[in-house]
Structure formats: structure tokens, C-alpha cells
Model the fold of this input.
Amino acid sequence: MKFTINRAVFTAKLNDVLRAISSKTTIPILTGLKIAVSDQDVTLTGSDADITIETVLPSSEESTNLTIEQAGAIVLPARFFSEIVKKLPDKLVTIEVSDGFQAQITSGSAAFTINGQDANNYPHLPEIETKDGVSLAGDVLKEIIGQTVLAVSTQESRPILTGIHLVLADNQLFAVATDSHRLAQRKITLPQAVQERYDVIIPGKSLTELSRMITDSQATVELRIAENQVLFVLGNTMFYSRLLEGNYPETSRLIPETEDTTIELNAAGFLAAIERASLLSHESRNNVVKLSVTAADNTAKITGNSPDVGNVEEAITTTSLSGADLEISFNPDYMKDALRSFGQSEIRLSFTSALRPFTLVPTQDAENFIQLITPVRTY
Done:
């Protein structure tokens, strides 16, 4: 096996594949990166058994400067190999495997030899038979992941909640995540209807890594679903993830249908105030910020208190406020995550009582995006 390639392009693709490789795997060969060279292209593969990323560098693309002298395959230690390639001096890098499983890496005046493993021992990729895919705009998919993954559970005690529940039916995509303390739900209308109904739970960790791979230039991402795998196709890169098995809890009943107090305000302004209040709340054991609403004089304020450090009080600028007086306490970190997902938009907070979950929705398009937070009992 021997090929020469543009080092910058090779490094970028290596970085993508490294997202799937973990040093904590129980299968030793999966700490390695598989390089397979054919007459036309070089394929890089990385996997941790949950996520598999495969990317192809074709010789037909000018930017790769790829010249292939001999086909073949090898598995090399991923982190070590990628650090070597990043630090090489020349614009081009040559990788050659002659006898056995040793790879020679040369670039300019630098030459490395590293030990590899037999590529035949590398696990086979999951097979996804279906060619029927759903095309999603890259920026839209990235936004949906960002707005929902924040509510994914990190507790393995309920594995099903560590994923995002994704439903594709007719011309709608529905995504929801909850860790039982908060919930994030997003709906979008697809440009064209899907032929089949898909109802899957994708690990939040997988979607976070996928989101990092979607660049601004990524116009579309194709989604293909099989029995226990999902495949996202991003140009020459294929991102496989296992699906979580089981039934996702019915989340629609968690969203209150009535409201006693509502506030409309700017998400970014409120976020800045919560960040100031949480400076003190983080110093106390319970990490709680309190929101007080007084309808009579149309005011809202937040307070934070740490017995060791002091307290903070700040009046909140609202564009509208209506309903009953209210005092409610919540985790400021949950509130900050929710507010960041709205960006600069105007939002409406709706409350039913001090101990019931409350919702945040954009004032425009309120039906399609909901964040829900469970308050903290302070007495």
C-alpha cells in the first residue's frame, strides 16, 4: 500500500473520523484508524461500536492531490498517527506499508515508522440496506440538534432518556428530549413528504458529534434508517449510529395546557440577568435562582442568595406581563441552556403555579418550539 496526499485535506478528514474513536473501548483494535486504499480513493474508518464514521478521499478531487501507487489496507493507532500527520513539515505526506504491518510516514525531511494491525481483523461496518433517504438541510438539522440535545439525560439509569426521540411522518419532523427535569421539543415542516413513517431514538452523544461535523457549506444531510442503525450521509462522509431500543415516554402530557401568569421578554437580555444571578447561586449548596412576579405594579425580578457570599436582586425588563402574582425557584443552569437555544428572539414564559413545570416558547412560531423546566421546591 502506498499513496501521497495533501496533508491539510488529510488532516481535516482525520479529525472527522477521530470523533468516533474512543480510547476506552473494550475492543482493542477500535482504538485504531482503518485506512483502506483502492485504485481510485482512500477510505478512512473510525468506530467505538456505537458510532462509526467512514470518509472517502477520491483521487478525482483536485484538492486532495492524491496519487495512489499501490492499493492495500492497515489499521494504525489513531491518536498517535493523527498527531504525527498534523505536525509534519511539508504540504504533502506519503504513507507506505511494505512488509508486515509497519507504516512509513514521510513528509519533507521527516520520516516516521509506526506499527499497525491487520485490517482484516477490523469489525465490519453496519449494513443499511435501504436506499430510501430523507434529505434535510444541514443548517436546519444542526439547529434542531442544538435546541433539543441540551435536555438529554446523562444518567445511564434510564438509558432511553439519553437519546433524542425523532419522528418523521408525512411532511413533519418532530424531535423531543427530556431528562425528567426539563424538556425540549422542536417541530419543522419538511419541503416534501416522506414515504414512510420513522420513529427512532438516537443517542444524544451521537447527534452532538454529528452536529460538530455539519459545516456551513454542508447544504444537505441525507438520513437513512434501518432496524437498529441510522446513517447520515454528509457528502463523502458516512456517519453511522446505533439506535436506542425501547419506548420513549409520552412527553405531550408533560406540557401544561393552561397558564396563570405569562411574561414576554427578550431571551438574550434575560439570559444575561440569569448569568449574573447564577454567579452567587453557584456558591450556595442548592444552586437556585428565584423569579418574583407582581402583577399589580407590572414588575418582575430575580434574586439569588448564597449565605456565605451575599445576595443579588435584579429587576427584569419585560415587554408584557399578565396574570397572577408568582414566586418560583429554578435551576439557573437549566434556564441558561433553554434561553441560549432561542438566540436573540422574543420569548414568552408561561406559569401555572410555583410547583408546576413552566414553558418557554418564542412569541413567533410558538407551536413549533417549546422548552419546559421543572421548578425547584425551596421549602
